[in-house]
Design a protein that fits this description.
With about 290 residues, the chain is α/β, with parallel strands linked by helices. The protein folds into two domains: about 80 residues, no CATH class; about 190 residues, Rossmann fold (3-Layer(aba) Sandwich), CATH 3.40.50.300. Helix content is about 50%, strand content about 15%. Strands 1, 2, 3, 4, 5, 6, 7, 8 and 9 form a nine-stranded mixed sheet that branches. Helix 1 crosses helix 12, helix 2 packs antiparallel against helix 3 and helix 9 runs parallel beside helix 10. The protein is elongated.
């Protein structure tokens, strides 16, 4: 602890503006490794005004967004991720937007979630409301047949079972997509989850090579720092964000600047004290 404190104090003395940026990143809830990586990219000489505004700009530039249009979700997209993150509701929002643009006959929903009681019924409920048919798929072979049947549809959205990384059923779910063809896997993460849970979810679903992310439950997140950290750490491109249960209103195309501003506006904590900064950054600075 003493070595950490000495290292942190030395950084504040030698590079006070960099230390100030690290302190602001910490206040935003950004994980230590991500904050260090971003601050390492700073120019040697920055002034107090730059140190005040740079953290938000750095975060905004570091977030990848896909620029996908809400009303033009084309192709086959499978929403994957842990249970309780809002995959089914998000699919309903995307389907509703696409139906408005292209018509119900150009949209199809597929359910591979046969573990959770009522999961398929929830998707079928949304399907009836939208006038869109829901197709069940139980394994890789049946999914392949369903997708072959739906070839030519503008949009096919696949709802999957929410499975934790430690659950043995995760490998079974991944097998369903083996040989399924041109399916775009999109990882759904809940912004109100703890940083460690978000990291574990990403690690668990990396074998599916998700092309992008959807960040849900922004309205329930006391801080967005953990979610932003995971997205930046893994260079995950963000498709959409959601901030409520209304279908189809509570969804938007991802905008890095809006997301970072929202993270800053949700802050209620004061600047972290020296003890916390030494704990988070001291040893790393000392070893560097």
């Amino acid at each position: 602890m003493q070595l950490s404190s000495l290292a942190w104090n030395d950084l504040e003395r030698r590079q006070p503006m960099q230390a100030r940026v690290l302190r602001e990143m910490t206040r935003l809830g950004i994980e230590a490794d991500v904050a260090r990586r971003l601050v390492a990219e700073l120019p040697e000489q920055i002034n107090a005004e730059q140190a005040r505004y740079l953290p938000l700009g750095m975060l905004s530039r570091s977030l990848l967004v896909s620029g996908r249009d809400l009303a033009d979700v084309e192709g086959i997209t499978a929403l994957v991720g842990p249970t309780g993150v809002g995959k089914t509701t998000t699919i309903a929002k995307l389907a509703a937007r696409t139906v408005l643009r292209h018509g119900a006959d150009q949209v199809a929903l597929v359910s591979t979630d046969h573990y959770r009681i009522g999961a398929a019924a929830q998707l079928e409920h949304y399907g009836r409301l939208l006038g869109v048919r829901v197709y069940p798929a139980y394994d890789a072979d049946s999914l392949r047949k369903v997708l072959e049947l739906l070839r030519g549809r503008h949009t096919v959205l696949i709802d999957t079972a929410g499975v934790a990384g430690s659950d043995s059923r995760l490998s079974q779910q991944m097998e369903i997509f083996s040989g399924a063809g041109d399916v775009r896997a999109c990882l759904v993460l809940a912004a109100n989850a703890q940083s460690q849970s978000l990291e574990e979810a990403v690690q668990a679903y990396l074998p599916l090579q998700p092309k992008a992310c959807i960040l849900t439950k922004l309205d329930e997140a006391p801080s967005l720092g953990g979610a932003l950290s995971v997205l930046i750490r893994h260079r995950l491109s963000l498709d959409y964000t959601t901030d409520g249960q209304r279908v189809p209103e509570d969804i938007a195309s991802a905008d890095a600047r809006i997301l970072v501003c929202r993270a800053a506006q949700s802050l209620k904590s004061r600047a972290p004290d020296d003890a916390l900064m030494a704990e988070r950054f001291g040893l790393a600075m000392a070893s560097a």
